[in-house]
Design the sequence.
């Protein structure tokens, strides 16, 4: 009886192992495809203080079908652009597409009848972190991610924002450009001015005391 149970256990283990092999092989057939999205970040200054090093966060999302990036099989691996001072800075937002989730059921649109090429339309905006010294950009752009399953290639193209399913511009030549304005004030200069005013006031008080003392002495 024990021998029979042992044989059955071995058979069950063998079936489980054989069942895992196809699943592993199937998962290996759906690689992650990388894509990049260039962003132009302009920093302007309105106050007398120069901004230091900053990091701005960008959000890629679906604002029409109310799907998450995970529903599309998309994950952002880099969503910030770093700046230092004023001027124009360039950064690249990065992400991956899980090809096993690229299908019309998950919101992708098949754009080629003879090839496995799909597209999805998303919106790119800048996250407002709420710092008082900054005016954040309210620009938004339509981003079309194209995924070629057979060619194992993914790319992201930027267009002027187009609401819903409206037609896009003919060319994807629009840079994803965002402008932020820094309104900070130089606290060092104002502190020095206040210190000088206090010193002058103290000197005036001291001079008044001396004059008063001399007058009082002369009367006595």
Sequence:
């Amino acid at each position: 009886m024990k021998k029979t149970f042992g044989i059955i256990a071995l058979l069950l283990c063998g079936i489980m192992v054989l069942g895992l092999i196809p699943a592993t092989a199937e998962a290996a057939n759906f690689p992650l495809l990388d894509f990049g999205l260039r962003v132009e970040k302009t920093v302007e200054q309105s106050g007398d203080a120069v901004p230091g090093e900053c990091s701005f966060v960008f959000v890629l999302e679906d604002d029409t079908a109310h799907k998450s990036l995970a529903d599309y099989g998309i994950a952002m691996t880099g969503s910030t652009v770093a700046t230092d001072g004023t001027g124009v800075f360039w950064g690249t937002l990065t992400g991956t597409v899980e090809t096993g989730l690229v299908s019309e059921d998950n919101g992708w649109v098949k754009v080629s009848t003879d090839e496995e090429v799909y597209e999805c339309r998303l919106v790119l905006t800048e996250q407002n972190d709420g710092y008082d010294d900054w005016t954040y950009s309210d620009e938004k752009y339509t981003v079309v991610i194209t995924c070629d399953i057979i060619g194992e290639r993914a790319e992201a193209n930027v267009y002027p924002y187009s609401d819903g399913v409206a037609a896009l511009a003919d060319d994807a030549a629009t840079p994803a450009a965002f402008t932020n304005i820094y309104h900070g004030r130089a606290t060092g200069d104002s502190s020095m001015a206040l210190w000088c005013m206090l010193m002058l006031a103290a000197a005036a008080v001291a001079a008044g005391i001396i004059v008063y003392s001399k007058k009082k002495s002369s009367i006595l």
